[in-house]
Structure formats: structure tokens, C-alpha cells
Write a structure and sequence with these properties.
Number of domains: 1
Number of strands: 0
Order of helices and strands: HHHHH
Number of helices: 5
Radius of gyration: 15 Å
Largest sheet: none
Helix content: over 70%
């Protein structure tokens, strides 16, 4: 179970880190991307504002447990990333009638981390 949790944590950290980094560093490229229609017409600062929490969440999924410093932040980061996906579903994808399955998949991965690392919140 621990290996599966680390794999999912690493996968989510890479995805959110890369996408959040792209949003933060190159918002113009995000706006031009055909798969990120939500960014069309948005300002650079708005796109960066969306990317920064994703980078922080990606770091929070891995760094606390790797360093052993405040490891309870890992499931908390997963909660934050899950909130981001719920906001994306209800404020962007559903109103635009876009597919929500990728967001649901990210929510499921976040839930797996939250429940798998629950002992960090409430040790036995």
C-alpha cells in the first residue's frame, strides 16, 4: 500500500508541478493550448494565480514525507488539490460543457492519498 501511495503521490506531484509551472512561467502558451480552453481570454496574472497553488500542492504531496518535517501536510496538500479540481469542475468545465473525467480522476487520486495517509492526521 505504501508503494502505491508513493507512486500516486509522485504522479500527481509531477503532473501538478509541470502544469502549474507552465501556468506560472508561460501563461501565454497555456492560453494558446487547444486543451486549456478555460485560459482563452484570461489575463496572465489570472493564469499564474491558478498555477501557483498547483505548484505548492505538488510540493506538499512529496516534500513533507521525504524530509520527515510535518508529514501531516501531505494529506492536507491532497485535500487542497482536490478542492482545486472541484472548483475547476463546477466553475469551468460544467458551465462550458467540457469533459470532467480527468478532474474526477485527479479527485480519486487525491482521495486515495488522503485516506492512505490518514494515520498522519490521527495516529493510532
Amino acid at each position: 500500500m505504501n508503494i502505491a501511495l508513493w507512486v500516486v503521490q509522485g504522479l500527481l506531484a509531477v503532473v501538478y508541478g509541470l502544469v502549474g509551472g507552465l501556468k506560472t512561467v508561460a501563461p501565454g502558451k497555456v492560453r494558446e493550448n487547444a486543451h486549456m480552453t478555460w485560459a482563452h481570454g484570461q489575463s496572465d496574472s489570472y493564469i499564474r494565480w491558478v498555477g501557483i497553488p498547483e505548484i505548492l500542492g505538488a510540493l506538499g504531496l512529496v516534500l513533507p514525507m521525504v524530509t520527515g518535517v510535518l508529514p501531516w501536510l501531505t494529506p492536507l496538500a491532497a485535500v487542497g488539490l482536490m478542492v482545486i479540481q472541484f472548483l475547476a469542475i463546477f466553475t469551468v468545465h460544467l458551465p462550458r460543457k467540457e469533459p470532467i473525467m480527468p478532474s474526477i480522476l485527479f479527485i480519486a487520486f487525491s482521495l486515495f492519498i488522503i485516506f492512505g495517509r490518514w494515520e498522519l492526521f490521527f495516529p493510532r
